[in-house]
Amino acid sequence: MSKRVLVTGASGFVGANLVHRLVEDGHETHLLLRPPHQTWRLRDLGGHAGQHHAHIENAAAVKAIIHSVKPEWVFHLAACGENPQQTDMQEMVSTNLMGTVHLLDACLSEGVEAFVQAGTIQESDPTGPYGITKAAASRYCEWVARTKGVQAVVVRMPKLFGPWEDPLRPVPSAVVRALRADSELVTPAGDRSYVENGVESLLAAAGSGVLPEEVPFDTGIQKFTVWLLAHPEILRIYETRLGLKA
Q1: Which of 77, 158, 190, 229 could crosslink 9 through cysteines, CB 3.0-4.6 Å?
Q2: How far apart are CA 93 and CA 80, in angstroms?
Q3: What is the number of structural domains in the chain?
């Protein structure tokens, strides 16, 4: 069944994959975008997703957008601090914690059916402001769900890889190294999962109908060859340079 959906953090890696999936599945999709934002992941959407611009820490602006869109599902992926270049602790507090508070409170006032927060594995043992603020935001979601009786679910995500990932991130960098050298592609150390699995978990959480719950998303350490990444252009280049067949 088609839903009216709003996604924050839609210009990011996971957010863009989620948005493309929502559009493909026929949902009425709206994006809450922070000005300015990266556009390269969203260029091929055309007019298939409504765009709304606001800073998520601006409670009045967020409330106005939620009131205008009246979403049935909200996916909250906007965050600050996962990128090593983002080091402003005040911004992490205002975005990760207060932004979540403002968004969830606005959703409560409009009777949103499902609120799904993308958590992080760093919440389990936070050692810095990113993990601490994300953990606090998740605890707030769970508290609201328990006290208000609404569906607010946190999906704790592992490290993901896949389409629209920043080219400088570990897995894309490993792909480039493998293409430039006669070597097997092996993922960098750490637990990783394909981004489509993350998207599926978010969608499942929205449609589950469960009340307060934190959903851990665990995956074992995996080894990836270029065949598993399976992008046709990557396969073509790999075959040409190494004389292999997919």
Answers
A1: 77
A2: 9
A3: 1
Question: First and final CA of the chain: distance in angstroms?
Answer: 38
Return the higher-pLDDT residue of 172 and 165: 165
| More confidently predicted of 195 and 208 | 195
The confidence score (pLDDT) of residue 165 equals: 75
Full residue range of the structural domain in which residue 53 is found: 4-158+194-218
Inside any domain, residue 88:
yes
CA distance 155 to 136: 14
Contact 9, 78 (CB under 8 A): yes
> What's the mean per-residue pLDDT of the chain?
82
Alpha helices in 70-211 (DSSP H): 89-92, 99-110, 129-148, 170-180, 195-207
Q: Does 181 reside within a domain?
A: no
Dist. CA 101–CA 42, nearest whole Å? 26
pLDDT given for residue 126 in this prediction: 86
Residue 75 above 90 pLDDT?
yes
pTM: 0.81
CA distance 119 to 100: 11
Q: Is residue 43 part of a domain?
A: yes
Domain annotation covers residue 29: yes
Question: What are residue 20's phi and psi, to 5 degrees?
Answer: -60, -40
